[in-house]
Write a structure and sequence with these properties.
By secondary structure, this protein is of the alpha+beta class. The protein is 35% helix and 17% strand.
Length: 427
Protein backbone atom coordinates (compact mmCIF):
# COMPACT_ATOMS: atom_id res chain seq x y z
CA UNK A 1 0.00 0.00 0.00
CA UNK A 2 1.25 3.45 -0.85
CA UNK A 3 -1.84 5.59 -1.37
CA UNK A 4 -2.45 7.88 1.62
CA UNK A 5 -5.86 8.92 0.30
CA UNK A 6 -8.17 6.39 -1.33
CA UNK A 7 -8.37 6.95 -5.08
CA UNK A 8 -11.66 7.10 -6.94
CA UNK A 9 -12.58 3.79 -8.63
CA UNK A 10 -14.36 4.01 -11.96
CA UNK A 11 -16.61 1.39 -13.49
CA UNK A 12 -15.72 1.77 -17.18
CA UNK A 13 -18.22 -0.83 -18.38
CA UNK A 14 -18.93 -4.51 -18.66
CA UNK A 15 -20.01 -7.35 -20.89
CA UNK A 16 -21.63 -10.70 -20.36
CA UNK A 17 -22.90 -13.59 -22.38
CA UNK A 18 -26.62 -14.38 -22.49
CA UNK A 19 -27.64 -16.27 -19.38
CA UNK A 20 -29.14 -19.65 -20.26
CA UNK A 21 -31.01 -22.26 -18.29
CA UNK A 22 -28.98 -25.24 -17.20
CA UNK A 23 -28.62 -28.03 -19.76
CA UNK A 24 -29.72 -25.90 -22.69
CA UNK A 25 -27.48 -23.78 -24.91
CA UNK A 26 -24.16 -24.12 -23.09
CA UNK A 27 -23.89 -27.88 -22.66
CA UNK A 28 -20.24 -28.82 -23.16
CA UNK A 29 -18.88 -25.44 -22.06
CA UNK A 30 -17.17 -25.11 -18.69
CA UNK A 31 -16.37 -22.15 -16.49
CA UNK A 32 -13.15 -21.45 -18.37
CA UNK A 33 -14.90 -21.19 -21.73
CA UNK A 34 -17.77 -19.10 -20.37
CA UNK A 35 -15.48 -16.75 -18.44
CA UNK A 36 -13.23 -16.34 -21.45
CA UNK A 37 -16.17 -15.14 -23.53
CA UNK A 38 -17.12 -12.49 -20.97
CA UNK A 39 -13.57 -11.27 -20.29
CA UNK A 40 -12.73 -11.42 -23.98
CA UNK A 41 -15.77 -9.27 -24.62
CA UNK A 42 -14.42 -6.61 -22.25
CA UNK A 43 -11.00 -6.77 -23.93
CA UNK A 44 -12.54 -6.31 -27.37
CA UNK A 45 -15.07 -3.65 -26.37
CA UNK A 46 -12.49 -1.41 -24.71
CA UNK A 47 -9.51 -2.06 -27.00
CA UNK A 48 -7.35 -3.84 -24.44
CA UNK A 49 -5.58 -6.35 -26.68
CA UNK A 50 -1.97 -6.60 -25.52
CA UNK A 51 -2.58 -4.25 -22.58
CA UNK A 52 -1.17 -5.17 -19.17
CA UNK A 53 -3.78 -4.71 -16.44
CA UNK A 54 -3.19 -4.76 -12.72
CA UNK A 55 -5.20 -7.96 -12.25
CA UNK A 56 -8.03 -10.15 -13.47
CA UNK A 57 -10.17 -11.45 -10.61
CA UNK A 58 -12.68 -14.19 -11.41
CA UNK A 59 -14.63 -16.82 -9.57
CA UNK A 60 -17.03 -19.72 -9.88
CA UNK A 61 -19.10 -21.50 -7.25
CA UNK A 62 -19.50 -24.92 -8.85
CA UNK A 63 -16.21 -25.73 -10.49
CA UNK A 64 -13.88 -28.57 -11.33
CA UNK A 65 -10.55 -28.93 -9.56
CA UNK A 66 -8.92 -27.97 -12.85
CA UNK A 67 -10.48 -24.48 -12.46
CA UNK A 68 -8.24 -23.71 -9.49
CA UNK A 69 -6.40 -20.97 -11.43
CA UNK A 70 -9.38 -19.70 -13.42
CA UNK A 71 -8.51 -16.01 -13.20
CA UNK A 72 -4.98 -16.41 -14.49
CA UNK A 73 -5.84 -18.95 -17.20
CA UNK A 74 -8.57 -16.72 -18.60
CA UNK A 75 -6.28 -13.69 -18.44
CA UNK A 76 -3.65 -15.59 -20.46
CA UNK A 77 -6.17 -16.50 -23.16
CA UNK A 78 -8.16 -13.24 -23.26
CA UNK A 79 -5.88 -11.16 -25.47
CA UNK A 80 -4.49 -9.16 -22.55
CA UNK A 81 -0.75 -8.97 -21.99
CA UNK A 82 0.54 -12.24 -20.51
CA UNK A 83 2.04 -10.10 -17.72
CA UNK A 84 -1.48 -9.52 -16.34
CA UNK A 85 -1.87 -11.44 -13.05
CA UNK A 86 -5.00 -13.37 -12.19
CA UNK A 87 -6.73 -14.51 -9.02
CA UNK A 88 -9.64 -16.87 -8.37
CA UNK A 89 -12.13 -16.16 -5.57
CA UNK A 90 -15.48 -17.42 -4.33
CA UNK A 91 -18.27 -16.26 -2.03
CA UNK A 92 -21.33 -18.11 -3.35
CA UNK A 93 -23.81 -15.78 -5.07
CA UNK A 94 -21.80 -12.70 -4.11
CA UNK A 95 -18.67 -13.90 -5.90
CA UNK A 96 -18.40 -11.41 -8.74
CA UNK A 97 -19.40 -8.47 -6.57
CA UNK A 98 -16.57 -9.61 -4.31
CA UNK A 99 -14.14 -9.85 -7.23
CA UNK A 100 -15.27 -6.34 -8.23
CA UNK A 101 -14.57 -5.05 -4.73
CA UNK A 102 -11.22 -6.86 -4.67
CA UNK A 103 -10.11 -5.02 -7.81
CA UNK A 104 -11.67 -1.76 -6.58
CA UNK A 105 -9.87 -1.91 -3.25
CA UNK A 106 -6.52 -2.45 -4.95
CA UNK A 107 -7.15 0.52 -7.20
CA UNK A 108 -8.27 2.69 -4.29
CA UNK A 109 -5.12 1.82 -2.35
CA UNK A 110 -2.82 2.57 -5.26
CA UNK A 111 -1.68 -1.02 -5.76
CA UNK A 112 -2.98 -1.18 -9.34
CA UNK A 113 -4.53 1.24 -11.82
CA UNK A 114 -6.90 -1.09 -13.65
CA UNK A 115 -8.40 -4.56 -13.60
CA UNK A 116 -11.18 -6.82 -14.78
CA UNK A 117 -13.54 -8.51 -12.32
CA UNK A 118 -16.14 -11.14 -13.03
CA UNK A 119 -17.43 -14.61 -12.52
CA UNK A 120 -19.10 -17.57 -14.16
CA UNK A 121 -21.06 -20.67 -13.29
CA UNK A 122 -22.46 -23.66 -15.07
CA UNK A 123 -24.63 -26.42 -13.71
CA UNK A 124 -24.49 -28.12 -17.12
CA UNK A 125 -20.89 -29.17 -16.43
CA UNK A 126 -20.81 -30.04 -12.76
CA UNK A 127 -17.94 -31.96 -11.19
CA UNK A 128 -18.99 -35.56 -10.58
CA UNK A 129 -17.12 -37.42 -7.85
CA UNK A 130 -17.42 -40.82 -6.27
CA UNK A 131 -18.06 -41.88 -2.70
CA UNK A 132 -15.52 -42.00 0.11
CA UNK A 133 -15.03 -45.79 -0.12
CA UNK A 134 -14.09 -45.73 -3.80
CA UNK A 135 -11.85 -42.70 -3.34
CA UNK A 136 -10.12 -44.45 -0.46
CA UNK A 137 -9.52 -47.53 -2.60
CA UNK A 138 -7.95 -45.46 -5.36
CA UNK A 139 -5.72 -43.61 -2.91
CA UNK A 140 -4.73 -46.86 -1.17
CA UNK A 141 -3.86 -48.29 -4.57
CA UNK A 142 -1.67 -45.30 -5.31
CA UNK A 143 0.06 -45.66 -1.93
CA UNK A 144 0.64 -49.38 -2.34
CA UNK A 145 4.32 -50.33 -2.61
CA UNK A 146 3.74 -53.82 -3.96
CA UNK A 147 1.32 -55.49 -6.34
CA UNK A 148 -0.23 -57.32 -3.39
CA UNK A 149 -0.92 -54.07 -1.52
CA UNK A 150 -2.52 -52.58 -4.59
CA UNK A 151 -4.74 -55.60 -5.14
CA UNK A 152 -5.68 -55.67 -1.45
CA UNK A 153 -7.11 -52.17 -1.75
CA UNK A 154 -9.92 -53.62 -3.90
CA UNK A 155 -11.02 -56.48 -1.67
CA UNK A 156 -14.75 -56.33 -1.04
CA UNK A 157 -15.37 -53.92 -3.90
CA UNK A 158 -19.03 -53.65 -4.93
CA UNK A 159 -20.64 -52.11 -7.99
CA UNK A 160 -22.62 -49.79 -5.73
CA UNK A 161 -19.42 -47.89 -5.08
CA UNK A 162 -19.54 -46.66 -8.68
CA UNK A 163 -22.60 -44.53 -7.96
CA UNK A 164 -21.51 -40.92 -8.53
CA UNK A 165 -22.06 -38.06 -6.13
CA UNK A 166 -23.32 -34.76 -7.57
CA UNK A 167 -22.69 -31.34 -5.98
CA UNK A 168 -25.14 -30.57 -3.20
CA UNK A 169 -27.23 -27.44 -2.94
CA UNK A 170 -28.12 -27.71 0.73
CA UNK A 171 -26.56 -25.81 3.61
CA UNK A 172 -24.06 -28.12 5.35
CA UNK A 173 -25.09 -26.92 8.81
CA UNK A 174 -28.82 -27.40 8.38
CA UNK A 175 -29.22 -29.89 5.55
CA UNK A 176 -31.86 -27.61 4.05
CA UNK A 177 -31.78 -26.09 0.59
CA UNK A 178 -31.79 -22.34 0.08
CA UNK A 179 -35.38 -22.61 -1.14
CA UNK A 180 -36.43 -24.41 2.05
CA UNK A 181 -34.76 -21.72 4.13
CA UNK A 182 -36.52 -19.04 2.10
CA UNK A 183 -39.87 -20.74 2.67
CA UNK A 184 -39.23 -20.34 6.40
CA UNK A 185 -38.44 -16.66 5.86
CA UNK A 186 -41.61 -16.16 3.83
CA UNK A 187 -43.68 -17.66 6.65
CA UNK A 188 -41.91 -15.58 9.31
CA UNK A 189 -42.44 -12.34 7.40
CA UNK A 190 -45.90 -13.36 6.11
CA UNK A 191 -45.01 -12.92 2.45
CA UNK A 192 -48.01 -13.92 0.34
CA UNK A 193 -47.71 -16.11 -2.73
CA UNK A 194 -49.53 -13.49 -4.80
CA UNK A 195 -46.98 -10.83 -3.89
CA UNK A 196 -44.12 -13.12 -4.86
CA UNK A 197 -45.73 -13.86 -8.22
CA UNK A 198 -46.33 -10.16 -8.81
CA UNK A 199 -42.68 -9.36 -8.23
CA UNK A 200 -41.61 -12.16 -10.59
CA UNK A 201 -44.01 -10.92 -13.24
CA UNK A 202 -42.65 -7.38 -12.94
CA UNK A 203 -39.08 -8.65 -13.31
CA UNK A 204 -39.87 -10.45 -16.57
CA UNK A 205 -41.86 -7.56 -18.00
CA UNK A 206 -39.25 -4.95 -17.08
CA UNK A 207 -36.44 -7.09 -18.53
CA UNK A 208 -38.41 -7.67 -21.72
CA UNK A 209 -38.98 -3.93 -22.09
CA UNK A 210 -35.29 -3.24 -21.56
CA UNK A 211 -34.36 -5.75 -24.26
CA UNK A 212 -36.85 -4.17 -26.66
CA UNK A 213 -35.41 -0.73 -25.92
CA UNK A 214 -31.89 -1.93 -26.73
CA UNK A 215 -30.53 -1.39 -23.21
CA UNK A 216 -28.61 -4.67 -23.23
CA UNK A 217 -27.28 -4.42 -26.79
CA UNK A 218 -23.77 -3.36 -25.76
CA UNK A 219 -23.76 -5.34 -22.51
CA UNK A 220 -24.52 -8.81 -23.90
CA UNK A 221 -22.42 -10.58 -26.51
CA UNK A 222 -23.97 -13.52 -28.42
CA UNK A 223 -22.72 -17.06 -27.90
CA UNK A 224 -23.69 -20.23 -29.75
CA UNK A 225 -26.39 -18.42 -31.66
CA UNK A 226 -28.04 -17.11 -28.48
CA UNK A 227 -28.33 -13.34 -28.25
CA UNK A 228 -30.52 -12.89 -25.16
CA UNK A 229 -31.26 -14.61 -21.87
CA UNK A 230 -33.31 -17.72 -22.55
CA UNK A 231 -35.00 -17.73 -19.14
CA UNK A 232 -36.85 -14.52 -19.99
CA UNK A 233 -40.61 -15.03 -20.31
CA UNK A 234 -42.00 -11.84 -21.82
CA UNK A 235 -45.43 -13.43 -22.20
CA UNK A 236 -45.83 -14.73 -18.68
CA UNK A 237 -48.91 -13.70 -16.71
CA UNK A 238 -50.08 -13.82 -13.13
CA UNK A 239 -52.42 -16.63 -14.13
CA UNK A 240 -49.54 -18.72 -15.48
CA UNK A 241 -47.44 -18.06 -12.40
CA UNK A 242 -50.33 -18.86 -10.07
CA UNK A 243 -50.81 -22.25 -11.74
CA UNK A 244 -47.33 -23.46 -10.72
CA UNK A 245 -47.01 -25.81 -7.77
CA UNK A 246 -44.76 -25.16 -4.76
CA UNK A 247 -41.19 -26.25 -5.45
CA UNK A 248 -39.69 -26.57 -1.97
CA UNK A 249 -42.58 -27.17 0.44
CA UNK A 250 -44.68 -29.61 -1.54
CA UNK A 251 -46.60 -31.34 1.21
CA UNK A 252 -47.68 -28.93 3.95
CA UNK A 253 -50.18 -27.11 1.79
CA UNK A 254 -48.57 -23.80 2.74
CA UNK A 255 -45.64 -23.63 0.31
CA UNK A 256 -45.37 -20.37 -1.64
CA UNK A 257 -42.06 -20.61 -3.52
CA UNK A 258 -42.42 -21.99 -7.04
CA UNK A 259 -40.32 -22.38 -10.16
CA UNK A 260 -41.86 -19.12 -11.35
CA UNK A 261 -40.94 -16.92 -8.39
CA UNK A 262 -37.53 -18.55 -7.77
CA UNK A 263 -34.43 -18.34 -9.94
CA UNK A 264 -33.64 -21.41 -12.06
CA UNK A 265 -30.27 -23.14 -12.32
CA UNK A 266 -28.47 -21.06 -14.91
CA UNK A 267 -25.23 -21.01 -16.92
CA UNK A 268 -23.44 -17.76 -17.74
CA UNK A 269 -20.56 -15.36 -17.19
CA UNK A 270 -20.09 -11.61 -16.75
CA UNK A 271 -17.16 -9.22 -16.38
CA UNK A 272 -16.53 -5.51 -15.71
CA UNK A 273 -13.57 -3.18 -16.29
CA UNK A 274 -12.50 -0.98 -13.35
CA UNK A 275 -9.84 1.71 -13.39
CA UNK A 276 -8.65 5.05 -12.11
CA UNK A 277 -9.94 8.10 -13.93
CA UNK A 278 -6.44 8.86 -15.24
CA UNK A 279 -5.91 5.35 -16.61
CA UNK A 280 -9.26 5.44 -18.38
CA UNK A 281 -8.73 8.94 -19.78
CA UNK A 282 -5.30 8.01 -21.14
CA UNK A 283 -7.00 5.35 -23.27
CA UNK A 284 -9.90 7.48 -24.39
CA UNK A 285 -12.32 5.73 -22.03
CA UNK A 286 -14.84 7.27 -19.66
CA UNK A 287 -16.25 6.26 -16.33
CA UNK A 288 -19.89 5.23 -16.29
CA UNK A 289 -20.00 5.40 -12.50
CA UNK A 290 -17.78 5.16 -9.43
CA UNK A 291 -17.77 2.59 -6.62
CA UNK A 292 -17.94 4.57 -3.39
CA UNK A 293 -18.91 2.21 -0.58
CA UNK A 294 -19.28 -1.51 0.13
CA UNK A 295 -19.96 -3.88 3.00
CA UNK A 296 -20.18 -7.58 3.82
CA UNK A 297 -22.20 -9.04 6.69
CA UNK A 298 -23.34 -12.41 8.01
CA UNK A 299 -26.25 -13.69 10.09
CA UNK A 300 -26.61 -16.57 12.52
CA UNK A 301 -28.95 -18.68 10.42
CA UNK A 302 -28.11 -21.73 12.51
CA UNK A 303 -29.41 -19.81 15.51
CA UNK A 304 -32.71 -18.85 13.97
CA UNK A 305 -32.07 -15.89 11.68
CA UNK A 306 -33.20 -16.07 8.07
CA UNK A 307 -30.52 -17.51 5.81
CA UNK A 308 -30.87 -14.74 3.22
CA UNK A 309 -31.34 -11.78 5.55
CA UNK A 310 -27.69 -10.69 5.81
CA UNK A 311 -28.11 -7.91 3.22
CA UNK A 312 -30.47 -6.15 5.63
CA UNK A 313 -27.56 -5.91 8.06
CA UNK A 314 -24.90 -5.10 5.46
CA UNK A 315 -26.95 -2.28 3.92
CA UNK A 316 -27.73 -0.76 7.32
CA UNK A 317 -24.06 -0.77 8.28
CA UNK A 318 -22.98 0.60 4.89
CA UNK A 319 -25.51 3.43 4.98
CA UNK A 320 -24.38 4.40 8.48
CA UNK A 321 -20.77 4.51 7.30
CA UNK A 322 -21.71 6.53 4.21
CA UNK A 323 -24.02 8.82 6.21
CA UNK A 324 -26.88 8.04 3.85
CA UNK A 325 -30.52 7.00 4.25
CA UNK A 326 -32.33 4.20 2.44
CA UNK A 327 -34.31 6.71 0.39
CA UNK A 328 -31.16 8.49 -0.88
CA UNK A 329 -30.94 6.39 -4.07
CA UNK A 330 -32.13 6.63 -7.64
CA UNK A 331 -31.83 2.90 -8.32
CA UNK A 332 -32.01 -0.22 -6.14
CA UNK A 333 -30.52 -3.40 -7.62
CA UNK A 334 -31.55 -6.18 -5.25
CA UNK A 335 -30.60 -9.64 -6.45
CA UNK A 336 -33.73 -11.75 -6.87
CA UNK A 337 -32.61 -15.15 -5.63
CA UNK A 338 -36.28 -15.62 -4.78
CA UNK A 339 -39.08 -13.11 -4.92
CA UNK A 340 -39.73 -13.90 -1.27
CA UNK A 341 -36.17 -12.97 -0.31
CA UNK A 342 -36.52 -9.53 -1.87
CA UNK A 343 -39.86 -8.98 -0.15
CA UNK A 344 -38.54 -10.16 3.22
CA UNK A 345 -35.67 -7.70 2.91
CA UNK A 346 -37.98 -4.81 2.08
CA UNK A 347 -40.35 -5.70 4.90
CA UNK A 348 -37.49 -5.92 7.40
CA UNK A 349 -36.32 -2.41 6.54
CA UNK A 350 -39.86 -1.19 7.10
CA UNK A 351 -40.17 -2.96 10.47
CA UNK A 352 -39.64 -0.85 13.57
CA UNK A 353 -39.07 -3.97 15.68
CA UNK A 354 -36.49 -5.50 13.32
CA UNK A 355 -34.64 -2.24 12.80
CA UNK A 356 -34.51 -1.63 16.55
CA UNK A 357 -33.83 -5.15 17.82
CA UNK A 358 -31.59 -6.51 15.04
CA UNK A 359 -30.08 -3.44 13.39
CA UNK A 360 -29.84 -1.22 16.45
CA UNK A 361 -31.66 1.67 14.80
CA UNK A 362 -33.96 4.16 16.48
CA UNK A 363 -36.45 4.08 13.61
CA UNK A 364 -37.33 1.94 10.59
CA UNK A 365 -35.04 2.37 7.60
CA UNK A 366 -38.12 2.97 5.47
CA UNK A 367 -39.62 1.90 2.19
CA UNK A 368 -38.23 1.74 -1.34
CA UNK A 369 -40.07 3.29 -4.25
CA UNK A 370 -41.07 0.26 -6.39
CA UNK A 371 -40.45 2.33 -9.54
CA UNK A 372 -36.74 2.46 -8.63
CA UNK A 373 -36.36 -1.26 -7.86
CA UNK A 374 -34.66 -3.49 -10.47
CA UNK A 375 -35.86 -1.18 -13.22
CA UNK A 376 -34.62 -3.46 -16.02
CA UNK A 377 -35.57 -6.70 -14.30
CA UNK A 378 -33.17 -8.88 -12.38
CA UNK A 379 -32.34 -12.50 -11.64
CA UNK A 380 -35.88 -13.88 -11.79
CA UNK A 381 -35.97 -12.85 -15.45
CA UNK A 382 -32.30 -13.06 -16.49
CA UNK A 383 -31.44 -16.17 -14.52
CA UNK A 384 -28.76 -16.60 -11.88
CA UNK A 385 -25.40 -18.17 -12.73
CA UNK A 386 -24.21 -17.92 -9.13
CA UNK A 387 -20.81 -16.27 -9.53
CA UNK A 388 -21.82 -14.12 -12.52
CA UNK A 389 -24.72 -12.21 -10.99
CA UNK A 390 -22.69 -9.56 -9.17
CA UNK A 391 -20.81 -8.44 -12.27
CA UNK A 392 -24.07 -8.43 -14.25
CA UNK A 393 -25.61 -6.09 -11.70
CA UNK A 394 -22.55 -3.79 -11.51
CA UNK A 395 -22.47 -3.37 -15.31
CA UNK A 396 -26.23 -2.83 -15.45
CA UNK A 397 -26.28 -0.23 -12.69
CA UNK A 398 -23.25 1.63 -14.04
CA UNK A 399 -24.96 2.00 -17.41
CA UNK A 400 -28.20 3.15 -15.77
CA UNK A 401 -26.30 5.87 -13.92
CA UNK A 402 -24.45 6.91 -17.07
CA UNK A 403 -27.73 7.24 -18.94
CA UNK A 404 -29.27 9.27 -16.13
CA UNK A 405 -26.22 11.52 -16.02
CA UNK A 406 -26.11 11.79 -12.24
CA UNK A 407 -27.33 9.77 -9.30
CA UNK A 408 -26.71 6.96 -6.87
CA UNK A 409 -27.48 3.24 -6.92
CA UNK A 410 -27.53 0.51 -4.27
CA UNK A 411 -26.54 -3.12 -4.91
CA UNK A 412 -27.66 -5.86 -2.52
CA UNK A 413 -26.83 -9.55 -2.95
CA UNK A 414 -27.68 -12.39 -0.57
CA UNK A 415 -25.50 -15.50 -0.55
CA UNK A 416 -25.44 -19.05 0.71
CA UNK A 417 -23.95 -19.43 4.15
CA UNK A 418 -26.02 -16.58 5.54
CA UNK A 419 -23.98 -13.72 4.06
CA UNK A 420 -24.69 -10.52 2.18
CA UNK A 421 -22.50 -8.35 -0.08
CA UNK A 422 -23.61 -4.80 -0.84
CA UNK A 423 -22.20 -1.73 -2.56
CA UNK A 424 -22.97 1.81 -3.70
CA UNK A 425 -22.30 3.20 -7.17
CA UNK A 426 -22.48 6.93 -7.83
CA UNK A 427 -22.16 9.35 -10.73
Amino acid sequence: MHATIARRVAVVGGTRIPFCRSNTAYVGLGNYELSLQAVGGVVERFGLTGVQLGEVALGAVIKHSSDWNLGREVALSSGLSPMTPGITMQRACGTSLDTTLHIANQIALGQIDSGIAGGSDTTSDVPIVYGARLRRRVLDTNRGKSLGQRIAAWRGFGLGELKPSLPGVSEPRTGKSMGEHCEQMAREWQIARADQDALALASHHKAAAAWRAGFFDDLVIPLRGIDRDNNLRADTTLEKLAALKPAFDRHSGHGTLTAGNSTPLTDGAAAVLLATDDWAAARGLRAQAWITHARVAAVDFGGGEGLLMAPTVAVAEMLASAQLKLHDFDFYEIHEAFAAQVLCTLRAWESADYCRDRLGLAAPMGSIDPAKLNVNGSSLAAGHPFAATGARIVATLAKLLEQKGTGRGLISICTAGGMGVVAILER
